User: Fold this.
Amino acid sequence: MGNYSTAIVGIMVIGVALTSAVVFALMRPNELPALDQNNR
Assistant:
């Protein structure tokens, strides 16, 4: 049963990491078009 608990915790950690990565990736493009417009 310990193996299953470790797997569940690992999946939860991966899920939190992916969620934070997606939130970060969605926040970044809002700044990039402004930088592109300023450069052109």
